[in-house]
């Protein structure tokens, strides 16, 4: 009998508690709605547009052998440093090529080719490697577990792994230990309506060898150049459909 | 009958824990003062829900490119992190770092700053520009503070 009474009291106590919880949840409701209203009224910029496909055309005829403007601009904007160690990051690097038969020599920057069918996205086990609606291939480092499958899958060696603890990262380019990183085409700049840092530096300090634009827009400079000149895509045999193309190879 | 007894015991234990915490078992967090006048939301709301904003920013910004200029992590830093008297910024591990002041107290470990910068960036403006009302409010706050200090012996 006493047990049953105790149970009844306990149930009542529980009911009171649940009742209070219900009241509390009602009281919280306006706060929860605050997110919704903020979302609709906040001056958020537009989301990545799937009608756009950002691309890069690099004219190797203009790319100077001694110039490193694109590399240093990328390093300073994104806050990485390559001191020549094999594990150092290289979001973009200058590569020298030479045709042994004809003797034709060129230097050109190699970076993430932002493929339409990216191998890195295909192999990523967590979904950290992804292609944004506007064609930019990125690593979500909140999800990246640092397995480096993408680094092995990428035929362009475009990605790097962060081996050391980092400090003093750039506010616009977070990067940290245990994750894979690579060229982001300077997404914060693109979202703000600017061109990537490398393209800007090439135009300012170099010979303007890089053209950035929308590959889907028939009137864009990049599209007109691609229509006018013969261009090369690296490893076209792999059918990855890169957004970075080279002219004069 | 065993279930309710266990729950009752747990409830009592949690009450005891709360009582210990409230009676000064752990030192209260000393939250560093912010530079700006207004946060992007009410302070009360931010105390409970700031993580919702951060997670939303995280997913929407990275995957969809939605950038709300008012609500960014560098924006939080520009307002909530200041130089210490010795001229240095507080380290991420330090209790004087804004986020840690509470997170150490509640025992929640955060891993934002192994990638994100924990310092204010000169180029990032304070999240919301002060309006005329804000200026008046700040002036009145200043007056009451000076009056309070003047009363102190």
Provide a quick synopsis of the model:
Chain A is an alpha+beta fold and about 250 residues long.
Q: What do these coordinates show?
A:
The complex is a heterodimer of chains A (249) and B (153). Chain A contains 7 helices and 10 strands. Chain A is an alpha+beta fold. Chain A has 2 domains: 1-44; 54-247, Alpha-Beta Plaits (2-Layer Sandwich), CATH 3.30.70.20. In chain A, strand 2 and strand 3 form a beta hairpin. In chain A, helix 2 (69-78) packs across helix 6 (197-204). The N and C termini of chain A lie far apart (94 Å). Chain B starts with a helix and ends with a helix. The relative contact order of chain B is 0.13.
* Fraction of residues in helix of chain A: 25-40%
What is the total tally of β strands of chain A?
A: 10
Tally of discrete structural domains of chain A:
2
Which structural category do the helix and sheet elements of chain A fall into?
alpha+beta
List segments of chain B where confidence is low: pLDDT < 50 over at least 5 consecutive residues.
none
- Strand tally of chain B is 0
Pick out the low-confidence regions of chain A.
25-44
Largest beta-sheet characterization of chain B: none
The end-to-end distance of chain A, rounded to whole angstroms, is 94 Å
User: Which series of helices and strands of chain B comes N to C?
Assistant: HHHHH
The topology string of helices and strands of chain A comes to HEHEEHEEHEEHHEHEE
């Amino acid at each position: 009998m006493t047990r049953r009474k105790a149970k009844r009291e306990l149930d009542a106590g529980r009911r009171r508690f649940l009742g209070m919880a219900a009241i509390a949840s009602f009281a919280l409701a306006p706060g929860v709605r605050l997110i919704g209203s903020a979302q609709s009224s906040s001056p958020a910029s537009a989301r990545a547009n799937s009608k756009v496909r950002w691309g890069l055309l690099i004219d190797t005829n203009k790319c100077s052998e001694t110039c490193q403007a694109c590399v240093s601009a990328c390093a300073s904007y994104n806050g990485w440093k390559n001191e020549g160690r094999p594990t150092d990051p290289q979001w973009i690097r200058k590569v020298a090529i030479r045709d042994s038969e004809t003797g034709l020599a060129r230097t050109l920057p190699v970076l993430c080719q932002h493929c339409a069918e990216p191998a890195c996205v295909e192999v990523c086990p967590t979904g950290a490697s992804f292609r944004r609606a506007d064609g930019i291939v990125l690593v979500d480092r909140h999800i990246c577990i640092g397995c480096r499958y993408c680094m092995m899958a990428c035929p362009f060696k475009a990605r790097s792994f962060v081996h050391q603890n980092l400090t003093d990262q750039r506010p616009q380019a977070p990067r940290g230990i245990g994750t894979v990183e690579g060229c982001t085409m300077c997404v914060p700049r693109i979202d703000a309506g600017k061109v990537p840092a490398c393209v800007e530096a090439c135009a300012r300090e170099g010979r303007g060898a890089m053209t950035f634009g929308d590959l889907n827009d028939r009137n864009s400079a990049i599209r007109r150049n691609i229509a006018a000149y013969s261009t090369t895509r690296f490893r076209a045999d792999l059918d990855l459909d890169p957004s970075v193309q080279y002219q004069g190879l | 009958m065993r279930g309710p007894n266990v729950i009752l015991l747990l409830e009592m234990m949690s009450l005891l824990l709360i009582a210990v915490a409230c009676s000064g078992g752990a030192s209260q967090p000393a939250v560093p003062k912010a530079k700006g006048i207004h946060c992007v939301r009410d302070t009360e709301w931010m105390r409970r829900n700031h993580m919702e904003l951060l997670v939303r920013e995280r997913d929407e910004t990275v995957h969809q490119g939605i950038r709300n200029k008012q609500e960014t992590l560098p924006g939080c830093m520009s307002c909530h992190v200041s130089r210490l008297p010795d001229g240095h910024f507080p380290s991420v591990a330090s209790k004087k770092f804004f986020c840690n002041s509470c997170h150490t107290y509640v025992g929640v470990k955060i891993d934002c700053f192994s990638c994100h910068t924990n310092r204010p960036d000169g180029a990032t403006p304070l999240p919301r520009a002060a309006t005329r009302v804000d200026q008046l409010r700040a002036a009145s706050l200043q007056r009451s503070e000076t009056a309070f200090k003047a009363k102190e012996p």
